[in-house]
Records
---
Amino acid sequence: AQATLVDPKCSLDDRLRALYTVKNEGGKTIEQARVLMAAVDTTVSVLMQHELLYNLGQFQITDEVVPFLKYILAHKTVDGSTFHYNVVSRHEAIESLGAILCRSTGIASDMVEDLRKVLIDLATESIEPFVEIRESAMLALMRMDTPIVSSSSSPAPAAGGTSYVAPTGVSSTVHPFVSVDPSPPFPAEANDAVLKSYQNPENKSKVQERIAVLVKVLETGVVSEADPDCVMTPSATEKAKEVGYYAEQCSLWNKYRAMFSLRNINTAESVLAICDALQKDATSALFRHELAFVLGQLEHPVSGKVLGEVIENVKEHSMVRHEAAEALGAVAEAEGLAVLEKYCHDSEQIVVDSCVVALEMHAYWSKFKTTSSDE
């Protein structure tokens, strides 16, 4: 699998399969991370680069990976006129830094402060021209100050500096999904007991009330009045004010947390709420792309129609359309096939690649879907 992953002559489908084989075969080690890093410059596919960089963040390894991600963010063309890597790839590098930095211990303090300065620059309009990158950086800054607090024993301090002990405030309870996300859900939806109670039919009205609260946050980005328990930890609030992006970033950050809370509730109603936000949001392509990603994680058939409409909207940002295509492949309902087949010929290469991959995903996952004739 490693040889396939770094071989530019292999097909995109084969290389993506190899990526996930490498990721899953050995426990997310530095040796595996090196293979992923080596593969980034062996492809011109932004989709492939995006998947490689995303998975580097899921490894949560600092040694060698953090300097590599910084290189992806800063590297420019020979004449220095523009960035070498696509906005989607650079966004994914930032999100991966956020995933790494949300570790509660074991990161050298000097590395943390260096990365904080890097992210602050990337969040600054006078320095970074692309809004998707600025928003990604602001989320990563917030993420590093609102980490997942692990209940496992703390790793030894990293070499070259004292161990960074991140502020607490987020439950260590494992949510039903395996990804390290760009924001945590709100505390209630990070709690196994609460999530299990949501599945009790006797609590249906309570769950509907909770979804209504979260929908309001999705729409407004405001939590203080709707749910006092959802406000940020004091340390995150203090850091946000310190770097001067408090009002703007809190809105997007709160929307992300509401989105992941709705994902963790994982009912048809919560999925439809995410679909509605994907259709209506006009504030952030980055946010819409994450909404589509979450729908792909949920794989609920009620999302298929909306995902198809997003792909068909050629005025939508390509990063949103590509994520919707991959999500539609994961949903794997028959109705999505025609859309994926049609947009394998789109003008945006990342959409083309995503539809091609999604068709293979569809072919695989549809084997496991229960049809009405099977019931």
---
Amino acid sequence: SAFAPSLRGVRSLVATCPTDPLASLHAGTWYKLICGASNQDLASIRNLVAVFALAGADCIDFSADPAVLRAVHSGLAAAAEVASVVGAPPPRPWLMVSVQDGDDDLHFRKAVIDQGNCPLDCNRPCEQVCPAAAFRVDEGVLSVIAERCYGCGRCLPVCPYDRLSAQQQPASLESVRALLPHVDAIEIHTRPGHLQPFRELWRELGPCATEHLRMVAVSTPPLGAGMGAQMAAMDDALVAGGAGELLRMWQLDGRPMSGDVGKGATVPAIELAAQVSAARALPWGDGRYFMSIAGGTNDCTVDVLRSRGLRADTPARLHGVAYGTYARKHVGRVLARLPEGEWAIEAHPELLALALKAALATVGPLKASMPGAGLPSFSSLIS
């Protein structure tokens, strides 16, 4: 590589141990980057994958779109090239695609502008609240950059003219099936009252999934009274559909797509984890069942987990944390500084170093308790 010599300056920021997602699960330090079930911003995804893979992420979760898969592979190839230059092993995180068990999941939608164009005198609060910079104005006409929008919905209530709405864009079963031979895991997004749709979805996908995958994950919000029993019923459906030999990850979704809103956004997911852990509906820690949190995760999550007694020293411990909006937004600020028309973060070592530092703000604290993690000292990153 022509830029190999200048890349050596990022050596101290790159994980130096081989990626071992299974070891991370057992150690309670499993880190997942959520690219977004509806995010199709290919250049951004490519660079996010490169950066977080180098930082030590164990899993990359992305939309069931073949173009996105190609972007993910491009990012991993870039990460491998950088790792080779700095003398580190090539990162090999698990790859995961997302699917929904119904047509009304907020993770599978995009904002659309209704009833004609936005009035010229509007101050466009939608632009101000959008964490994905998914709005643009061209010759006075406001439009949504569809590939960037991932459905957080913050723009919907602030439109003073009520001209924004959400359009569902569910992943098709055909696209999901086509990708399963090329990934390690699938994540099913469910909702309260969706046990039957969940069963039907797994009947459709189970045979292909069990042939190709290591893990099936279930992303669930609070399910109300009897949540443990509902989780056990879903697990029975997975096992009946052939998932008995797969690892099962239960991702508890506290406050979806809100990690950048404020420090307290992480609390609902942690409280949900405490509730599920106490219920002991599934045999956590037996080597097959794992628990992680998402929805509101940010740079405060690990500290709050520790304060609530949910780190690795509890019997039914939390095994991992998934980071989405917060992680993407903070690294995205660096990616936005790439010169216009350029898309490879590794071609700009000074920006790559800044992006790695931003990524390690969440990777570092989670991995810090894992002996031999091969990560830089977190304290050195913030000094």
